[in-house]
Amino acid sequence: MAAGGGRVEHGQKACVKVDGGMTRVFELLGKRWTGLIVAVLTERAAYFAELRRAIPKISERMLTDRLTELVAAGLVLREVDPGPPLRVTYRLTESGRALEPALNELARWAERYMPEDRGCRERQGAEPPDPLAP
After folding, report:
1. Helices (DSSP H) in the chain: which residue ranges?
2. In angstroms, how far is CA 67 from the centroid of its own chain?
3. CB neighbours (10 Å) of residue 74?
4. Which helix (H) or strand (E) holds 92?
5. Residue 13: DSSP 8-state
6. What values do phi and psi take at 108, rounded to 5?
7. Residue of 60, 62, 61 lying closest to 34 (CA atoms)
8. pLDDT tens for residues 69-108?
9. Which of 19, 41, 82, 121 has its CB surrounded by the most CB atoms within 10 Å?
10. pLDDT for 1-13, tens place per residue?
11. Does the global pTM surpass 0.90?
């Protein structure tokens, strides 16, 4: 309804919905941490503990939940290594690896349009952390 109580008419363009494919992608990859997990796994397969160290602010529970979702979506393969000790390796499937060009484009976009606060890092004299460093 319009402010005066009348009905507001609009064109067909106002009713256009978001593409179904984009909706499915962002329902999965739009969740916090999911894109970072995939980004780490584009570099190499990793154990759970390595993923946890690569993404320092993620909780173990959240990492477990996100990995479970990625496995269910067919983007990540979970492989149990023969022990002892029992270790689980996570690696991207073919469909997960196919995300790498899109993630690289997003990274380039972020560098151009979302620069980090370099002032803080320069004042601290620190280099950005290596996400795969032990």
Report:
1. 20-29, 34-43, 48-54, 60-72, 94-97, 100-113, 118-124
2. 11
3. 11
4. strand 87-92
5. G
6. -65, -40
7. 62
8. 999 999 999 999 887 888 999 999 999 999 999 999 999 9
9. 41
10. 555 566 666 666 6
11. no
